[in-house]
Amino acid sequence: MVRHYFHLQASWPGLRNDVGTIECEQLKTKISIPKEMDGPGIGTNPDEMLLGAAATCYIITLAAMMERSQLEKEDLSMSSEAVVDVTNGIFTYEKIIHRPVIILKESATAQDIALARRLAHKAESSCMISRAVQGNVDISLEETIKTAQ
Fold first, then answer.
1. Residues above pLDDT 90, as percent of the chain
2. Which of 51, 96, 103, 120 shows the smallest number of beta carbons within 10 Å?
3. How far apart (Å, rounded) are the C-alpha atoms in residues 100 and 78?
4. In terms of C-beta density within 10 A (0-12 exposed, 13-18 middle, 19 or more buried), how is residue 136 classed?
C-alpha cells in the first residue's frame, strides 16, 4: 500500500471576522468568511476550497481517463457551482454542479462522443474528493460534448 501525505499550516489571528492564512507546498493564501455569510470576503474560504477540490479532482480524473482511453480532444474546460443552504442558522453544503465542456477532434465519431459521455460520468464516481463527500454533498453533472469545427 502507498500512502501520500499532504500538510497545511493555518493561522487565525483574531475573532470571527478577521483574516487568516493557509499555506501548503503549492498554495499560500489569505482566508476569511465570505461576504455572502457576513464576513470580510478576503482571500478564499472553505466553501470555495471544497468546490475547488471537487472541480480539480474531477477535471484531472476525466483528462486521465480520456488519455488512457486514447480519446483525443481539442479542449477540456469546466465551470462548477456550489449551493450552500442556510436554514435556521445552520449552514449545509448541499450540492456541487460540474459543467464540463469536452471538445473532441473534428474527426470524432459517434462512438467517440458516446465514450466521452461515459467517461464524463465515470470520472465523477472515480474522483477521490467525490468519494470523500459522497452521502453528504450531492454532486451532479451537466456535460456538453462537441466536436471541433
1. 97
2. 103
3. 4
4. exposed
> pTM of the full predicted structure?
0.92
| 120: amino acid identity, one letter | A
- Over the stretch 39-83, which tens digit does the pLDDT of each residue have? 999 999 999 999 999 999 999 999 999 999 999 999 999 999 999
- Pairing status of strand 20-23 against strand 28-31: antiparallel
Strand-pair partners of 99: 79
Q: How many residues does the chain have?
A: 149
Q: Are 101 and 77 in contact (CB under 8 A)?
A: yes
Strand 90-104, strand 138-141: pairing: parallel
- pLDDT for residue 115 is more than 90: yes
- The amino acid that residue 118 corresponds to is R
Burial (CB count within 10 angstroms: exposed 0-12, middle 13-18, buried 19+), residue 53: middle
Structure-block grid coordinates of residue 15 = 475573532
Residue 139's identity, in one-letter code, is I
Extract long-range pairs of 26-33: CB within 8 Å, 24+ residues apart: none
Residues 46/52/54/58 CA torsion (nearest 10 deg): -170
